[in-house]
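User: Sequence in, structure out. Go.
Assistant: Echoing your sequence, followed by the structure tokens.
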Amino acid sequence: MKASRSSATTTREKLLDHALTLFSDRGYAAVGIREIIHAAGVTQPTLYHHFKDKRSLFEELIRQHYEVSQEQLEQVVAANNGCESRLQVMVQSSFDFCLADPRIPRLMFQTYYGPRIPEIDGILDSLTDRRFQLVKRIMVEGIHEKCMRPRDPDFLALTFCCLMDQPLNIFSRRSRPGRFLTPALATEIVDQFLQGAST
């Protein structure tokens, strides 16, 4: 019984792993069920034993990876004090998450910034909004602490997310993203945001 349960878990993980590779490389819409089962070396009934359809497989990937990363991000931000320190750990944690498996941010950017796919529309929305609200709270605190000038917190949060996400988007596609997503770059992003580029 234990061996059977362990085998089922392994098969499920194999399906998720191969789907993650395919979706992150080519996007959700371009990947068919047959490609996933072929890559994983299983039969179609096996896939449908574990997942209702391609959408439910995709949802499980999002739940496994993005919900967990969001919870970790909230914890590290809460463990730090001060606007600058919280922004720094937010960027560094995002870099670390990317470096642990670059397929995951590629999947997110492929899905969120690619053409709209009605079948999976809205799956990422609650998670990206949760992250945005976390950044916005840091902006409100930063204004209150006089760490930054009073401005619209939504605009500040959007600006910071753009500065943080663009390197993740670009460098997660490189062969060795660790050469680029460094603590020095994390510091530079926060410095640019807080100080600006002016002399």
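User: And one key feature?
Assistant: The radius of gyration is 19 Å.
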